[in-house]
């Protein structure tokens, strides 16, 4: 049975919207399926995020979700939220519900209880799965099930969905009615860093001579790659080089990721690593874009999950090999109307 009020339009809300990665993803999927995507509500407490979101989508997100009554939020088919991950992440000290930001999950639950959308998609860091020996995740799942949602979760890696970024995130999906839902399968190909990295980058992005020398010394004697690499220095000071990026992080050192051990990623490169199209507008300082991009979602992963959720809602038979293809050459412009 089709669970959508209008089978030609998907109405969604974009909570903790940030740069709008969820919105880009659902727009891409809906265009592929000849559906209209309609964002009826968005919010984010970060004023920079709201400014950038407005510049790119024309909508002005609301602010603090705790000050917004659930009844004031329009009806919608899908609730989407990358709720604040810092309380559950390594960089955020893993405080969980002891951190005020960790309790924002219950704002999602509050809205689900009142609005009862057909489905939801939530995203967070993979550490949520094991936080407090799994007790935190169990509280979340129990809360969602108490709201009469059929719920499941899985950790997906952006590396397996076309993006050259090792970014493992937990996705939690739920449906108001029991549905046949199949988690998406990995993509068949991955974008090369060659398609991500810019040429003729300004001196602003280059690390100091001292830092570059330090990285080279730590990589001395290691086998070089024949393709571009991004060097990653972990908390222990070990430097590794890969033909992809380790996870972008908002709160990490400015030099923890260096292209060929020499320079920081540009704003456009960071957006590309998350799957944003090149017509996405860069607004504000480097620090602002770095923070918000690090907190954003890997669009190809989100799109793959959204694709599976919409097919379940439309009651479309899903093959066991279901996958959502993503690469730089077929990636749509943010405002394109073509299919891919």
How many strands?
Answer: 11
- Distance N terminus to C terminus? 27 Å
The secondary structure category is alpha/beta
CATH topology of the largest domain: Rossmann fold
Give the strand line-up of the largest sheet. Answer: 2-1-3-4-7-5
Poorly predicted regions: 86-102, 319-340
Essential attributes:
3-stranded antiparallel β-sheet, alpha/beta, globular, 340 residues, Rossmann fold, 6-stranded mixed β-sheet, 16% strand, disordered C terminus, 11 strands
Overall description:
By secondary structure, the protein is of the alpha/beta class. It folds into two domains: 199 residues, Vaccinia Virus protein VP39 (Rossmann fold); 67 residues, no CATH class. 26% of the residues lie in helices and 16% in strands. The protein is built from eight helices and eleven strands. The strands form three sheets. Strands 2-1-3-4-7-5 form a six-stranded mixed β-sheet, with helices on both faces. α1 links the parallel β1 and β2. α1 crosses α8. The longest helix has 15 residues. It is globular, with a radius of gyration of 20 Å. The protein starts with 8 loop residues before the first strand and ends in a 27-residue tail after the last helix. The C terminus is likely disordered.
Compose a concise summary of this entry.
The protein has helices spanning 21-32, 47-57, 105-115, 135-146, 209-219, 267-273, 286-294, 299-313; strands at residues 9-15, 36-42, 78-81, 119-125, 150-157, 165-166, 168-175, 230-233, 239-242, 245-246, 257-259.
């Amino acid at each position: 049975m089709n669970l959508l009020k209008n089978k030609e339009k998907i109405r969604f809300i974009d909570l903790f919207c940030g740069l709008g990665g969820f919105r880009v993803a659902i727009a891409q999927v809906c265009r592929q399926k000849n559906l209209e995507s309609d964002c009826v509500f968005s919010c984010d407490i970060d004023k920079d995020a709201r400014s950038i979101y407005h510049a790119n989508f024309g909508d002005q997100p609301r602010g603090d979700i705790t000050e917004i009554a659930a009844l004031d939020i329009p009806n919608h088919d899908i609730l989407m939220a990358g709720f604040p991950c810092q309380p559950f992440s390594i960089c955020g000290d893993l405080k969980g519900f002891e951190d005020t930001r960790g309790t924002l999950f219950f704002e999602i639950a509050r809205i689900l209880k009142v609005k009862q959308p057909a489905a939801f998609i939530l995203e967070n860091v993979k550490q949520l799965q094991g936080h407090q020996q799994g007790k935190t995740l169990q509280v979340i799942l129990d809360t969602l099930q108490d709201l009469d949602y059929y719920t499941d979760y899985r950790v997906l890696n952006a590396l397996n969905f076309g993006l050259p970024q090792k970014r493992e995130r937990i996705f939690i999906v739920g449906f108001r009615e029991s549905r046949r839902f199949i988690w998406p399968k990995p993509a068949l190909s991955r974008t090369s860093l060659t398609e991500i990295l810019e040429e003729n980058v300004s001196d602003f992005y280059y690390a100091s001579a001292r830092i570059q020398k330090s990285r080279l010394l730590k990589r001395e004697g290691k086998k070089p790659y024949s393709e571009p690499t991004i060097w990653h220095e972990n908390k222990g000071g070990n430097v590794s080089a890969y033909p992809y990026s380790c996870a972008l992080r908002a709160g990490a050192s400015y030099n923890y990721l260096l292209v060929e051990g020499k320079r920081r990623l540009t704003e456009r490169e960071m957006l590309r690593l998350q799957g944003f199209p090149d017509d996405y507008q860069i607004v504000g300082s480097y620090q602002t874009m770095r923070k918000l991009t690090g907190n954003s979602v890997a669009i190809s992963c989100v799109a793959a999950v959204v694709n599976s959720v919409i097919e379940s809602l439309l009651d479309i038979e899903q093959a066991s090999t279901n996958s959502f293809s993503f690469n730089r050459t077929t990636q749509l412009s943010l405002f394109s109307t073509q299919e891919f």
